Amino acid sequence: MPKRISVALATYNGADYIKEQLGSTARQDLPPDELVVCDDSSSDDTIKIVRDFSEYSPFPVHFEQNGERLGIAGNFEKAISLCRGDLIFSADQDDVWFPSKLRTMRDVFDLDRSIGVAINDAIVANEDLSIRSHSVMSNMRRARGSEKEFIWGCCTAITREFRDLCIPFPTSGFETVGNHDDWFHFVGEVFGVRRIMDQPLQYYRRHGANSSDSEAYRRKVSGLQGVLYSYRLLKRYISDGSAHNRVLEERLRLIDLLLNRFKETPLHGDSSLAGEQLKRVEDKRAKLERRVAIGNIAGWRRFTGAVAFLISGGYRDFRGLKSFLTDVCK
Predict the structure, then answer these.
(1) Is the distance from CB of 44 to CB of 71 less than 8 angstroms?
(2) Domains along the chain?
(3) DSSP 8-state assignment for residue 200
(4) Does the pLDDT value for residue 233 go beyond 70?
(5) Which of 58, 141, 191, 246 has the smallest C-beta neighbourhood within 10 Å, fewest atoms?
(6) Alpha-carbon distance 176 to 320, whole Å?
(7) Which ranges of the chain would DSSP assign to H, the alpha helix?
(8) Do the beta carbons of residue 81 and residue 51 sit within 8 Å?
């Protein structure tokens, strides 16, 4: 049975660029079954542009205007929760999708039913869509980054059952999953249901009003810049050991939250597959608990504990040698 596709678009004062994003959605060679737009009380022409588009859109457009501002995470949560498709694509208001994006990503999910969340690469572009660098992933690799750090929401698609596991977002009392993209990819990594499509399927536009910044958005990260960035990042991780342990402890609490949700609604109906996922999460939790214990050891014994964990392969579930050095040197 063909998968129904929803696109969730969260908007706020996006009049300068949103026409191009809407147009690229309409030009998909596999059109979505619906576009859900939630506007966070825009004061420019964003609302008019969306309503005008809905008049001639080749697919239904469901528009919601928030009475009060929800913020980025809250607005995306609302838009995604209103989607009725089997696959849900989150969209930023200022990007431009390639015509093959929806079909290509749909095929990825069709080929592997274990996938809950997938992410495609993107070409980094300037305000006028002139190419800034080859892709986000190529810059991340030059910056010595980990694929675990590639979590851009505008490149993300999820299944409906994965959405049901993730919503509501755990915003209260948690600092490390501030936005929907952080949360989706954290859950995907924990359950082992995340896939990366190493193929650019859209332009990621950089302009003065972007809400995020990263080395991955540079024109082109050189090898030397990558080494320096990796050093600065590691130095920052090590500089505040107590903050590092708080992050690990918070992730433990997030995994406990997920385990409770998962036991109520497994990601897949196949009981054996659900059992494999549960085992993976429990294993991930045990390794994370081991890292917290290592961080609480004082002096040279922490080094001994970290080395034993490294030899056992425990750091492979994290960021490898970087995580080892962070635990030892913090």
Answers:
(1) no
(2) 5-221 (3.90.550.10), 240-329 (no CATH)
(3) E
(4) no
(5) 58
(6) 20
(7) 18-26, 46-56, 71-81, 101-111, 136-142, 160-166, 180-191, 223-239, 241-264, 271-295, 300-311, 321-329
(8) no
For residue 243, what pLDDT band results from cuts at 50, 70 and 90? confident
Beta-bridge partners for 119: 156, 196
Cα 202 from Cα 7, distance rounded (Å) = 14
Percent of the chain at pLDDT > 90 equals: 56
User: Which of helix, strand or coil describes residue 234?
Assistant: helix
Q: Are strands 96-97 and 131-133 parallel, antiparallel or unpaired?
A: unpaired
Q: Are 93 and 18 in contact (CB under 8 A)?
A: yes
> How far, in Å, CA of 285 to CA of 155, rounded?
27
Joined tokens for residue 168: 């509501």
The b-or-e profile of 222-231 (16+ CB within 10 A means b, else e) is eeebbeebee
Beta bridge partners of 159: 87
Give residues with Cβ within 8 angstroms of 218, minimum separation 6: 124, 132, 133, 139, 225
Residue 65 has pLDDT above 60, yes or no: yes
Band (pLDDT 50/70/90 cuts) for residue 252 is very high
Residues β-bridged to residue 37: 9, 63
The H or E element that residue 211 is part of is none
Q: Confirm if 43 and 13 have CB atoms less than 8 A apart.
A: yes
